[in-house]
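Bench notes, afternoon.
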Amino acid sequence: MSKDFMIAFVIAEIFYKLGSFALECLAFLATWYLLSYAFNGLVRRGRS
């Protein structure tokens, strides 16, 4: 699995206790998206 997925999963498991599966799922997906965006930006910047 990708690094961004695993980091987002750990963050969600530790910090997101929202009391609703739907809210926790949305928070996890948003975290995963932001980490993926950040990692892709770092990779692109490193290749330039």
